[in-house]
């Protein structure tokens, strides 16, 4: 996952940085809560840093940090100690900062005096705003200077700025105490009685063209419930409540639920629509690939998230050829951005289309969503967009007509690599040599195969047998060509790609695990693929590496050449189970859940690929996003896969064949959505108890027949039940 200038990795946020996220807003600070402009810190709204300095001092001294934590993804608590003015070691003054993020921030500051004498305190909140674009901050090169004007009154400071035709600003105000406002911030003088405390609330709210972004933007009153609290509460009420015998796995799943709720963002043109952002801190935006995959991973929890993502991407589907943005008719975008810098980089545009996989994933997800019970009219409205996506695959994705989808950037500003491993050096040969574009990735061919199968099955259900047969034949031809040209018989695995000369790129990489998930791999090759994925060169003990240790480009502390990505592994687990490799899937899923124990039960975007035997815990990758949508979807995907929990609501079928690892214990889930109703599920070993199955739905104890198998045999929907 990366932005347009992805050749530069996200800058470090500093040791112990704390990240809050709420919708497309995020906040990064030190452990004591302070924000400094020389770090990639700040409060960000619409890809703009509206607060670049937010530093609290007591009697002229910064706080010594004692601890920081996030109760929910958008709220942080920072506890520190004020330095004594007389230089003695122990201070009687502790400071608690409770911060809530929304459209801006609200912060409660509580100073406790544990001394036996009153304490005179001079409290200063120094504030600044540089309105830097997110990518300027990320890359450490803030080069755009805004013309600023500052105004203050008895209780607030206003910073307004202009650059060309744009006007942005922020208002900082105190609630509950009267400050002395200056151009530098808010100052309070107070005497705190012995064994007493003093409290103030400070809010920072962005403005656009002189108007505050929302009213009220946040939890401005202690007696009210904030909009983000209401939204998170609604999310928590709508998703399943799961208990597991293994409490660590349970906590990881609950953390994933919370983070996925916080990563949802609203389509500004359709406030009722939710989509999932890619990840915090740098990718709090709609990404084609990331948003599609993440919403697919959590489909059993909330199918409306997939619907919102599909509808939003459909409205922005490519309509013309634009080499600057790499837009093409039918193409699904890579990312949407709102900041000034990204717009300038693309001639005033906010969308970039340079990805090879989002377009087939769009069709694949539509097929999945149609089977999980979305309304038929919603699916029907998206079918023309799916057909335009298939047109793109034929007309633009496969320009040389060899049957495979390739990519090559259309300008020198775009992404060199346009699959999920989109770093500049992410696709290479076994000797470390970089592959030259046009490049046909193995997993992209798998996604295209899944897209053909998904659309064929929707055509069967609609009674269009001619189209269904055409798409079935396209899928079969692609599968045959793929297994002929990507398979490396002397190595026992699939090439990660074909290069510009149609040479197999022979690195041993994790990408082929996605091909297991899609089903494009011939059954007689699956065992060898699984064996290589779980070999010591690939399996670190915490997960499958992106690249084997024996490869020339291997580096355990690289973004894509030897690290471990949880989402990558979750798709590999699903692929293993698709081909019947249960023990390998259990081992890999267990390793990931054990890794989460070392990151406060939150799986990060990625971690380093060192051997588990060499280090006592998984080592973090320095600039990994956390929370991140794919990673948050991973625990859900793992449990869904290991339950072998699948549905086809329109055909009245629900399938269960659980193979949860024994160490995870029993599972009890309530509030599990299904066909307009709510299920209660209990699983102990292979025993299943299910309550609340809606009328018209039938539980099948076993594995759902593969749609690809049914499509290949040309089965019609009315014969579907005969196959189970």
In short:
The protein is an alpha+beta fold and 724 residues long. The protein contains 16 helices and 34 strands.
The domain tally reads 2
**Oligomerization status of the protein chains:** single chain
What would the CATH topology of the largest domain be? Glycosyltransferase
Average pLDDT taken over every residue: 88
SSE-based structural type: alpha+beta
Shape: globular
Radius of gyration: 26 Å
Low-confidence stretches are 2-15, 339-348, 719-724
Question: Could you give the distance between the termini?
Answer: 39 Å
Tally the helices: 16
The main pleated sheet reads as: 9 strands, antiparallel
What is the total tally of β strands?
34
Annotated CATH architecture of the largest domain: Alpha/alpha barrel
Helix content: 25-40%
CATH class bucket of the largest domain: Mainly Alpha
How large is the share of residues in beta strands? 25-35%
Would you kindly provide a written description of the structure presented here, covering whatever features stand out?
This protein is an alpha+beta fold. Helix 4 (288-297) packs antiparallel against helix 5 (303-315) and helix 7 runs antiparallel to helix 8. Strands 7, 8, 9, 10, 12, 13, 14, 17 and 18 form a 9-stranded antiparallel beta sheet that branches. It has a 5-stranded antiparallel beta sheet with strand order 6-5-11-16-15, with no helix packed on it. The protein has a 4-stranded antiparallel beta sheet with strand order 1-2-3-4, with no helix packed on it. Helix content is 29%, strand content 25%. The chain is globular, with a radius of gyration of 26 Å. The chain has 16 helices and 34 strands. The chain has 2 domains: 18-225, Distorted Sandwich (Beta-galactosidase, Chain A, domain 5), CATH 2.70.98; 239-648, Alpha/alpha barrel (Glycosyltransferase), CATH 1.50.10.10. The longest helix has 22 residues, at 376-397.
